[in-house]
Design brief:
The chain is mainly α and 319 residues long. The chain has a single domain (21-307), classed as Na+/H+ antiporter like fold (Up-down Bundle), CATH 1.20.1530.20. Helices cover 82% and strands 0% of the residues. It is built from 17 helices and no strands. Helix 7 runs parallel beside helix 13 and helix 9 packs antiparallel against helix 10 (159-191). The protein is globular.
């Protein structure tokens, strides 16, 4: 038990360094990745529950007193950012399926794990949690019309069914978090913060495995294409992040702007697998697998930048 405790604490301290290596597990063990596909939903619930455990609820209550900020930022993620990046991608001389995938990715909601990784990056995990929840519930109303208007792609999303599926994830996560918080109490919860962070990293590692299903076969068949898609997925994630940050810096404090940008850069592309028609361009499904690489690697790349920028904002008032 002491060894497990030591491992979890070390994982919590070195979270961003471990994230990129989690993809290798799914890539190396392809049979395991295929077998674990049904676990994507339960793992999403578990990750959200752990994020709720580490959430600053005093900050959440403050944000909910004036919910306009989270709502406006969520609208920016789901509507404004796609409208900004769509002309850029549509003019690029790249595969048509990749253009559609990059645009669809920009229309997707914030990834559920954003609040978890925001904690490790010292961003505002409470704001990240609200943006993730709002965008995931609002996406059935924004994604279909945008996809039809910009890409002429009819998704035929059942708003009720998708909303109920997302609601089930949230209700289960909230129930689990409330039960654990009541059992541990505030003091023990603070004492076990590093263990919870380590458990979150372990869950993210396991979550990456099923998302890598089929990547090796496609990579062996079209290695140059897969490499191009991975490079484009990095560009797409960084572009949507930068667009949101630049749009927010003039009106928000630096930490909130960086949090909004991070939520814009990390999209729940796995949700697209559930709503795209079977006749959709197969390149879009290749992109959904490829984009998991920046989702797991970018936190490691951005952590030193965030530390420097946030340190500057902390010392600015005394300057």
């Amino acid at each position: 038990m002491d060894r497990l405790d030591h491992v979890l604490r070390r994982m919590g301290r070195h979270a961003t360094a471990l994230l990129p290596f989690s993809l290798l597990v799914g890539i190396v063990f392809q049979d395991l990745a295929s077998a674990m596909r049904p676990l994507v939903g339960p793992l999403s619930t578990f990750l959200l529950m752990l994020a709720l455990l580490r959430t600053d609820w005093a900050r959440v209550r403050t944000l909910l007193q004036r919910p306009g900020l989270a709502i406006v930022l969520s609208a920016g993620v789901l509507v404004a950012v796609p409208l900004v990046v769509w002309p850029f991608w549509s003019l690029m001389p790249i595969w048509h399926g990749l253009i559609a995938a990059l645009c669809l990715s920009a229309m997707a909601p914030t990834v559920i794990s954003a609040a978890t990784t925001a904690t490790f990056l010292r961003l505002d995990n409470s704001l990240a949690l609200l943006i993730a929840l709002i965008t995931n519930f609002a996406v059935p109303f924004t994604l279909p019309p945008l996809a039809l208007w910009l890409l002429n792609l009819d998704l035929h999303i059942g708003v009720g069914a998708l909303s109920l599926r997302l609601l089930a994830i949230v209700i289960a996560a909230v129930a689990g978090a409330v039960a654990i918080r009541a059992w541990l109490g505030p003091e023990r919860l603070r004492h076990n913060a590093e263990r919870i962070d380590g458990l979150s990293i372990a869950a993210l590692i396991v979550y990456a495995i099923p998302l890598m299903d089929g990547v090796v076969a496609r990579g062996l068949a079209e290695p140059e294409k897969l490499g191009g898609f991975i490079a484009a997925s990095f560009a797409g994630a960084l572009l949507t992040n930068a667009v949101m940050v630049l749009g927010c810096l003039s009106v928000l404090d630096r930490r909130s702007a960086l949090t909004a940008g991070y939520c814009s850069g990390g999209r729940n592309n796995a949700l697209l697998m559930a709503v795209l028609p079977a006749t959709a361009n197969p390149d879009i499904f290749l992109f959904i697998a490829a984009v998991q690489v920046p989702i797991y690697v970018i936190p490691t790349l951005l952590q030193p930048i965030y530390r420097r920028l946030l340190a500057r904002s902390d010392v600015a008032p005394s300057g």
